[in-house]
Design a protein that fits this description.
The chain is mostly helical. The chain has helices at 16-39, 44-61, 68-75, 84-102, 110-120, 160-177, 182-196, 203-217, 228-234, 236-247, 258-282; strands at residues 138-142, 148-153. The chain contains 11 helices and 2 strands. The relative contact order is 0.17.
Length: 292
């Protein structure tokens, strides 16, 4: 079975490029409270925009759409979802709201992941929300000659519950030790979660919700004001490329986390840059609210 012990693995990630990204994010984090405190009354609109974009774009990555009018009504909870897509959007809305308002009370344990997944599918009625997958799944590739081959085989269904338990325990142990920068651990955890692929459906959306939750736990709250999901959707080709690159040799404990870690840190840097530029814009004294 896969070894989820991060104690030795994170040290390999301290390359000059990653250290530079970490330093940049730490500097942004040092300024975030000052920006928020000085402009709290002017950031309400950013909260609303980020919420709408997060729900829209995280679902869009998975091919889940509805009209703009229906999307806004569902996000504002002014209508009941009708189609399957709308039900999944409404579920994402509720889980996102839970994370925004109660992240301090959401531990990284198996039962809580199941509860969040249950809420993600509470409108769908499919019956598999809040349950680990019941069958094995793979990623298949087709080459130029039309031949199909297995690119990646996820953790088998019978190993899933134990794998998630081990993953959460390893993450919590090293986070509590405070020996490692959580910005390194978060993308490592997300990659491992995606390679386990614990659910029949919703793994991608759950991974993005978990990334936001883990960032909140460590004091990085930029995702409240800037949609990380939108930045990921706008770079989804790179997202899948680096995810694929970092998953090679995963079952043998030989995979290289670096590509996916660098990508994720880049997403966070982009979010902070956008956040600061928007704060500077809305804080201008002579700019009217409609123009902001």
């Amino acid at each position: 079975m896969r070894n989820y012990d991060y104690i030795k693995k994170w040290k390999k990630l301290l390359t000059p490029q990653i250290v530079s990204l970490l330093t940049t994010i730490h500097e942004f984090k040092g300024r975030q409270s000052l920006f928020i405190e000085a402009n709290s009354d002017k950031l309400v609109d950013l909260l609303e925009i980020a919420k709408i974009q997060s729900i829209e774009y995280s679902n869009k990555i998975e091919g889940i759409y509805t009209s703009n009018d229906r999307l806004r009504q569902i996000i504002l909870d002014k209508t009941m979802p009708k189609t399957r897509n709308e039900k999944e959007i409404a579920g994402y809305r509720d889980v996102l709201n839970t994370i925004h308002t109660s992240y301090e009370y959401i531990p990284i344990i198996s039962s809580m992941l199941l509860q969040l997944h249950r809420d993600l599918y509470k409108f769908s009625g499919d019956g598999y929300g809040g349950k680990y997958k019941s069958s094995d799944n793979i990623i298949a590739e087709i080459n130029k000659n039309g031949e199909k081959s297995i690119r990646f085989k996820y953790v088998p269904a019978w190993e899933t519950a134990e794998s998630i338990n081990n993953l959460c325990n390893s993450y919590n142990d090293i986070i509590e030790s405070k020996d490692v920068d959580p910005l390194l651990l978060i993308p490592m955890f997300i990659l491992d979660f995606l390679c386990i692929h614990p659910f029949n459906d919703g793994n991608g959306r759950m991974s993005r919700l978990l990334m936001l939750l883990l960032l909140y736990h460590s004091g990085y709250i930029v995702g409240r004001y800037i949609s990380l999901e939108k930045i990921i959707e706008n770079s989804k080709e790179s997202y899948y490329e680096f995810l694929k690159e970092s998953s090679y040799g995963w079952h043998e404990n030989e995979n290289n986390y670096e590509p996916f870690v660098k990508y994720t840190l880049g997403i966070i840097v982009s979010a902070y840059r956008e956040f600061e530029s928007r704060v500077i814009l809305v804080s201008k004294i002579n700019v009217s609210k409609p123009k902001r």
